[in-house]
Design goal:
single chain
Length: about 180
């Protein structure tokens, strides 16, 4: 029988190499850390879709409602311009949330973290908070995706509440890591 089939010694060599490189793919903590990054990526993807929907609705709103200037009416209606600017601001707010989620910290895999914090429990709690972020991002996306500019403006209060809820969840996540 070849040495390549001796499972015990080969497994020891593999584990030593994993720890020698400072990373073991099979540790629960590393799987939780990877899951946390994937879940936040999912939330970012949903918010990117929501922003694209708002930006598209804003462009359509401007094309349909702002008439070309004429000698009799050289300036567009201020109410229509204010609505278009509100849609533009909403798109920027959703994009800012996406950036904040993308750059959220994760506990480092270092000795100080391992000494003062239970890494697996911390990462599991973060996964729960990030799952809430995904749910909130999907709800926001479902409200704005496929909606016209007027419909988004009509649901403005609910959308603002959604943005505030996502912001509160992000603050809760950051305070948990502090």
């Amino acid at each position: 029988m070849s040495r390549f089939y001796e499972v015990g010694p080969l497994a020891k060599v593999g584990i030593n190499l994993f720890y020698g490189y400072g990373y073991n793919f099979y540790r629960l903590e590393n799987q939780l850390r990877a899951d946390d990054q994937r879940v936040r990526q999912m939330a970012c993807s949903l918010l990117a879709r929501a922003r694209a929907a708002v930006d598209g609705a804003e462009g359509r709103y401007r094309r349909e409602n702002i008439q070309p200037p004429s000698r009799a009416n050289p300036f567009p209606d201020p109410g229509i311009v204010a609505n278009a600017q509100a849609l533009e601001r909403l798109g920027r707010e959703v994009g800012a949330l996406e950036g904040q989620i993308r750059h959220q910290p994760v506990p480092e895999n270092d000795r100080m973290t391992q000494r003062y914090r239970l890494e697996a429990a911390t990462l599991a709690a973060l996964a729960e908070k990030d799952a809430v972020l995904v749910g909130q991002a999907d709800l926001l996306r479902s409200i704005v995706e496929g909606a016209a500019g007027d419909a988004i403006l009509a649901n403005g209060r609910e959308i603002e509440d959604g943005i505030a809820a996502i912001t509160a969840t992000l603050r809760d996540r950051q305070s948990f890591l502090s």
